[in-house]
Amino acid sequence: MKTVRKIAAIMTIFAVVGALSATGLTQLNSREYKILLKPQKFVDRQAGYRAVWNIAKAVAESLGIEVREARRPFREIRRKVYFLDTPDHDLRKHGYVLRVRVKYNGDKPRKEYNLTLKYRSTDFEKSSQADITVALGGYKTKAKFEADITPKKDSLGTLRFIYSKSVKVKKLDFNPGNTLGDYAKIFPVLGKLGIPLDKKLEIVNGFIVDERKVSPGMLVFGGGINGMVDITTWYEFGDTSEPFVAEFSYDFRIRSHNELVDQGIENATRYFKALQFALKDWYYPEGTKTGYVYSHRPKIKEKAKEK
Q: What is the DSSP secondary-structure string of 179-211?
């Protein structure tokens, strides 16, 4: 009864605590540089992590960029990841992505989860005006307006910008429901897209990701711009024989702009261009992690159907 009362209270009291509106976050406050890597290079994950991190450190050293290695650089974190959308992928057609992440303690998933709504576009103005308002009291939220930077396909030493505005609702401990209307009670913009509110939301393509990630260290670019490095592999849940996606990334927050900060950002960009050439034998120019999930069905389930 206590849980039922808590859910009822949450779903009926929509005080906007620290509301995140379309006009409340219009300047970039984060950058993330990402490069997809050939997944077959990570059949032995630990060997793959070490090889890529050694290349990353060597590039940094060649450019005079300080590396601060973590005390346990290859300690893995595990998460379960999946995306929610209508059967016709209406949210993605409108530029929005709804993602669930569940952290693990060892081999056991935590009871609570993080729910993220993200709007992505190559158009800066569209992203800057995207509505990511949270109408949910009692939970912590974190908002970002980020430039996601990747190489241009089949062109090393280049930059492609996608502008991503997102809000994460942390440690939810209840199931909102299974319709668009249920989730519109948390993110009101979902009720303004012209999609019927009674439309069902489901796990995109039935694809649940088993994510493994290490954070081996930090790249110090100057001006307080410190890139936190992650190396990530994604598996289909239930089959960790070989990842279907691998990625090297680093990100940092931008809290102000001055000459030193701008120089740090320039150093981070220069490093990314050089890193692409150093990782040319690892580079995998095939879209994004999210794009893969939206365009593929799990091989495990397809094999089961064949039987």
A: BHHHHHTTSGGGGGSS--TTPBPEEGGG--EEE
On whether the CB atoms of residues 244 and 234 are closer than 8 A, the answer is yes
Look at residue 110 and tell me whether its pLDDT is greater than 80: yes
Give me the residues paired with residue 214 across strands: 231
Q: How would DSSP label each residue in 279-294?
A: TTTTB--S--HHHHHH
Q: Tell me the C-alpha distance between 21 and 132, whole Å.
A: 6
Helix (H, G, I), strand (E, B) or coil at 295: helix
CA distance 159 to 140: 33
* pLDDT for res 20: 39
- Give the torsion through C-alpha atoms of 208, 80, 50, 70, to 10 deg: 160
Mean pLDDT calculated for residue range 154-171: 95
**Domain definitions of the chain by residue range:** 2-306
* Whole-number Cα distances in Å, 93 to 15, 126, 150, 241, 306: 29, 14, 21, 33, 31
How far is the C-alpha of 105 from the C-alpha of 66, rounded, in Å? Answer: 32
Rounded distance between C-alpha atoms, residue 31 and residue 43, angstroms:
29
The three-point CA angle 16-17-21 to 5° equals 60
Neighbours of 15 (CB within 10 A): 9
Q: Which among 236, 178, 243, 234 is positioned nearest to 207, based on CA atoms?
A: 236
Backbone region of residue 158 per phi and psi (left: phi > 0; alpha: psi in -120 to 50; beta: other values):
beta
DSSP state of 239: B
- CATH architecture observed for domain 2-306: Beta Barrel (2.40)
The pTM of this model reads: 0.89
